[in-house]
Amino acid sequence: MDLKSKIILISGPTASGKSNFALKLAKKINGEIINADSMQVYKQLKILTARPKKKDLKIIKHHLYGFCDVKKNYSTGEWIKLLLKTIRNIRINKRIPIVVGGTGLYFKALTEGLVEIPNIPIKVRNKIRQLQKKIGQKKFFKKLINFDTLVKNKIDKNDVQRSIRAYEIKYQTKKSIFDWFKKTKILFPSNEFIKFYIDYPREDLIKRINLRVEHMFKDGAIGEVKRFNRLKVKKENSSNKVIGIKEITDLLNKRCTLKQTKELIAIKTRQYAKRQATWARGQMHSWQKINPKNLNLALKKLK
After folding, report:
1. FRET label pair with 83: which of 67, 71, 102, 113, CA 20 to 30 Å apart?
2. Any idea which architecture 3-115+186-200+279-301 has in CATH?
């Protein structure tokens, strides 16, 4: 297989060893690593988001990690624009791009195309979020399908995020989100991708998550949250979604103990990993499942 014309994708649940697997693979095939994790873009949140270590950055060139300020809302569209430029530069240098991360929407946009929807003003987005919160998801969804009939049977009634997104697009553009989908721009032919999904046994993954939480605190997670809180980031900003910020803030405010904080972070991380796995089952049918310990098997699949 001529890898020079390929883009290797590595996804999987949080704490499954994606970054380490990508590092080993990059060494073997002369690759460079590109981030596909929506939280690892934030420069002030290195520990909580488990960004690659300095020693790893020295071994293999990494791209799109820790460059965005936590006060900025960062979109999939912005990531795609930087990604395309990065892939182009990597190929110019005769290296192989390896895109690694756990953000399903990033991979969906990359492999299936980008829907170019105009930016929705933050005032409109906040107004619709407040409406959803006020009336609850059940009433909000009924309101949505009356407002945009194309949504019916296409969005799960319990999917808060997609419901809000569909409503704000219809509200701002007067067009259904599904009308916009018809204008999807395909970025690469499907045969350019080699797609690996890290498949870790659930019990082993839970142990890895617990271990990660312990390492986070040893590496200075509390200090990182203190510095983050001093920046007074707006509540609606995406960076506030990073697991650990709320929990450690509660610890600092003496609303819970250190042990309780670690347990809460581990629970939320497990829940997030489960959501990622659910997404993968529904959206990543064509991905090759692989154990991250079996690098040789992955290399065989590349031949």
Report:
1. 71
2. 3-Layer(aba) Sandwich (3.40)
